[in-house]
Amino acid sequence: MDTIAILDFGSQTSQLIARRVREAHVYCELFPYDAPAEQILALRPKGFILSGGPASIYQTGAPSVPDYVLESGLPILGICYGMQALTHALEGRVAASTRPEYGPAEIEVLTEDPLLPAGKQPVWMSHGDRIEIPPPGFHVSARSENSPIAAISDNLHKRYGLQFHPEVSHTPGGGEILRTFAVEICDAQLEWTPESIVENTVKRVKVQIGDQRVIAGVSGGVDSSVAAALVQRAVGDQLTCIFVNPGLLRHGEPEAVVQALGENLGARLIAIDATETFLDALSGVTDPEDKRRIIGEKFIRVFEAQARKAGQARFLVQGTIYPDVVESSAPDRRVAARIKTHHNVGGLPPDLDFELVEPLRYLFKDEVRAVGLALGLPESLVWRQPFPGPGLAVRCLGEITLERLKRLRVADKIVIDELQTAGLLRDKTAQAFAVLLPVQSVGVMGDQRTYAETVAVRAVTTDDFMTADWARLPLPVLARISNRIVNEVPGVNRVVYDITSKPPATIEWE
Ligand code: XMP
Question: What DSSP string runs through 435-449?
Answer without folding.
Answer: EEEEEEEEEEETTEE
